[in-house]
Amino acid sequence: MNVRRLIPTAAVAGAVALGLTTLSACSSSDAAEGGGDGKLDVVASFYPMQFLAEEIGGSHVSVTSLTKPGVEPHDLELSPRQIGGLSDADYILFLKGVQPAVDDAVAQAGVENTVDAAKLTTLESHGSEVGHDHGEDEGGEHGHEGEEAGLDPHIWLDPVKYAEVAEGVGKSLEKADPDHAADYRKNTQTLVAELDKLDKAYEDGLRNTATKTFITTHSAFGYLAERYGLTQEGIAGIDPEAEPSPARIDEIHHVAEETGATTVFFETLASDKTAKTLAKDLGLRTGVLDPLEGITGKSAGADYIEVMTSNLTALQKALGAK
Questions:
Q1: Which of 83, 174, 243, 294 is deepest in the core (most CB within 10 A)?
Q2: 299/23: higher pLDDT
Q3: Using CA atoms, how far apart are residues 15 and 308, in angstroms rounded to an integer?
Q4: Chain-wide mean pLDDT for the chain?
Q5: Distance of alpha carbon 138 from alpha carbon 160, whole angstroms
Q6: What is the DSSP letter of 21?
């Protein structure tokens, strides 16, 4: 895959209005490693896993993310030092099917407390439309493993499924570090309650809209769309920066006309060129819908809850929420 460029995105207000409590800010991917401090040394594969480990682990864990802020996680390549250091971790949390390099390294590390988040909920197939075809079509490049197998790995964009994963992570931390099991259990309950609030905010906020269809360059929102009765229309194939075919542009034009779609969304870790060109051609607006694969200073929020709330605000505007 091509390395995707970091693009700026405007912060979108909404968390306060929805009354969602912001959880503690996440540490950077260069967080100090565990060891002599007595904390559980946790390695997370990318931001959605890092957030869970930090929120549930609290003061009892030291979390390091393999994916630094601003790096497109699907394109991650691990250094020999990172691969070698994995075997020293006390606990590894990853999501198989998102990052092939991580999947291979984790398999070789042999760490007893290794948790695959994909096994903590039920993966589904999404994205049969052109926009989520991650096979060998345009450009001849491959998608990530989970999608090639027909399963969508973007479970963290559905607050309900993410809560299921959180509960599984909490139980696994209790097992890995039984001395602090009570704290892990309490932190899990707190996080799940926040995710329940987020789910209710989405359900209420998207119940009555002028249209149910949104257009996006990165078809990562299949679970979210299914959860809240929406339809996701992807533009091009494997790469959000790829130029859509004339046939697909024509299809999107008809989709916009028939459904009343108003906005072409692009993501935070890719170029907005395709979205802006298509939107101009079709007379549509552009906006940011963050797939939350990483948090940077350009993200519309400091953590998962804030960015998901900003995504809700963006969807409400695009869909004409009443």
A1: 294
A2: 299
A3: 9
A4: 82
A5: 33
A6: P
Q: Pull the structure tokens for residue 301.
A: 């929020």
Which two tokens mark 147? 């999608």
Amino acid in the structure at residue 174: E
Question: Which residues are 266's β-sheet partners?
Answer: 288
As a dihedral over the C-alpha atoms of residue 83, residue 47, residue 76, residue 232, rounded to 10 degrees, the angle is 150
Residue count (the chain): 322
Burial category of 18 from C-beta neighbours within 10 Å (exposed 0-12, middle 13-18, buried 19 and up) = middle
Beta bridge partners of 43: 64, 92
Per-residue tokens: 32:
């100090």
Query: Can you tell me the distance from the alpha carbon of 201 to that of 21, in angstroms, rounded to the nearest whole number?
Result: 12
Of 35, 102, 97, residue with least CA distance to 65: 102
Residues in a beta bridge with 4: none
Residue with tokens 């007893």, as numbered in its chain: 112
Q: Per residue in 222-262, pLDDT tens? A: 999 999 999 999 886 545 556 677 888 888 889 999 999 99
Q: How far is CA 316 from CA 9, 87, 118, 194, in A?
A: 17, 45, 29, 20
Cβ–Cβ < 8 Å for 290, 272: no
**How far is residue 114 CA from its own chain's centroid?**
20
Residue 160 structure tokens? 């309900």
Residues 188-213: pLDDT tens digits? 999 999 999 999 999 999 999 999 99
User: Could you tell me the two tokens for 129?
Assistant: 């439309």
- 168 pLDDT tier (thresholds 50, 70, 90): very high
Q: 43: which 2 tokens?
A: 């390695």
Locus of tokens 């091009």: 236
Nearest to 157 by CA among 53, 304, 316: 304
∠ Cα 120 121 122 (to 5°)? 140
